[in-house]
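Minutes, project check-in
Item: structure for the 278-residue chain
Input as provided by the requester:
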Amino acid sequence: METECRPPAGIAEQLTNDVCVMKSQMGFWKMLILGILAGAYIAFGAELSTIVGHDLAGHIGVGLARLIQGAAFSVGLMLVVIAGAELFTGNNLIMLSVLDRKVSIWRLLYNWTVVYLANLAGSLILVMLMYWSGLWKMNNLGVGVYAMSIASAKVNLSFLEAFARGVGCNWLVCLAVWMAMASRDVAGKIFAIFFPITAFVASGFEHSVANMYFIPIGILMKGIPSVLAASAGAIDASNLTWYGFFVRNLIPVTLGNIVGGAGFVATLYWLAYLRKGR
């Protein structure tokens, strides 16, 4: 008789023996399509978080505002896990199968590369959709100004800050995926995802795929004279460029995400539950 919740050792075994192996063997086109969808789903969470949070801090304080934004953002990973999609940060867990010698390092790198680029494509689709929709004009351009403010803060982090925040982020994201695997029903998966994702956003950690939406939309907002004027010079957008996006944020955050997910979750749980002779 099955219990309602899989134990941690059972989660480790299912991910290692079944889920991660299946992901590594997925065909190119399926991987590409599901990767694009994941990028779009995370971007949906990011744009919802931006709209919900753009004027909250002035009313309820920064801490509560960030908590509510985190709750809104969690919709993105719920879509990925429950609707089904391939997310780079979640796929860092494939390291479990590599360590258990069920997947080669080359298949791992192939999966990460295809899914990462597909996530970028999906995120940029949502960036353009948001731009064309004119939703950034909401509340007298308040949403557009806030989007630019978020992006500017991200590209002004130091390498170490961005890396460390990337580690913390994917530690929590992979734990959300891990805990969702524990549940056998949709409601349980939603709750398992909600709290770790809310925690990572409220904490200010950095997610590489989310930033594929947050920073490009901020760059586009910077190019709109009315949004720049509405910001009244309060935002340091000097580093808000495509170079700033890739070099100052995406590279260190991606490296941090890999350490957090493949290192602190996949490797440590493999050592705890699956290493031979433990």
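Outcome recorded: The chain has one domain: 8-273.
No further action items on this chain.
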